[in-house]
Write a structure and sequence with these properties.
This protein is an alpha+beta fold. Helix content is 22%, strand content 37%. The strands form 2 sheets. It has a 7-stranded mixed beta sheet with strand order 8-7-6-5-4-3-9. The radius of gyration is 19 Å and the shape is globular. 24% of the residues are buried.
């Protein structure tokens, strides 16, 4: 059993025990310290239309200077279409959101669609670069992951936006969908 001064976690891609003092003293300088939190910049991007849906889009940046190099809207649409390839099915709403997270350890695409009034369907993909240098998204090896602490802030914002513009209004019509799509977030999380 670990002592109070150790933690078990994923460090540099391997599962192991690490002394907290080692982390706090910089002993793991080759890896990001999982016990630190630095705010990340979030920018609302133009909405993405994909397979009969409109998705609010966000860019999230561990390194704010990367925020000036956003992908082409067509690339973002193509990547979202790999997740949402079919038109909305029974219970699917034609709106949702996506987060393109330029993280410290990799880049990720999260795609979410509202379903059956008060539920959210959610997919997470990691980016891969092929031999020709083309970047695409693919399912993660760790398929149970939902979101990181920074992405959860945007998901919470979207939850509140959905509740306030659709559920609290008691209707799902064009006016409530327009209000939802117009409610976006930009700032630090």
């Amino acid at each position: 059993m670990p002592s109070a001064s150790t933690i078990r976690g994923q460090f540099g891609g391997e599962q192991r025990m690490v002394e907290i003092g080692q982390l706090l003293s910089g002993g793991e300088s080759a890896y990001l310290n999982p016990l630190t939190y630095s705010p990340r910049l979030v920018k609302a991007l133009p909405p993405v239309e994909v397979s009969g849906r409109i998705l609010k889009a966000y860019g999230m940046f561990a390194e704010p200077e990367r925020s000036s190099s956003l992908p082409a809207p067509e690339w973002l649409r193509e990547q979202a279409a790999t997740v949402l390839s079919e038109h909305p099915q029974g219970g699917d709403h034609p709106v949702g959101f996506l987060i393109l997270h330029y993280g410290a350890e990799g880049d990720y695409l999260l795609v979410s669609q509202w379903y059956d009034a008060n539920m959210l369907k959610h997919w997470v993909r990691g980016t891969t670069v092929d031999a020709e240098g083309n970047t695409t998204v693919a399912p993660l090896a760790q398929r149970d992951l939902i979101a990181c602490v920074w992405e959860l802030e945007v998901i919470n914002f979207e939850r509140d936006a959905w509740v306030n513009t659709v559920l609290a209004q008691g209707r799902l019509d064009q006016a409530s969908l327009d209000a939802y799509l117009a409610t976006t977030f930009s700032g630090w999380v």
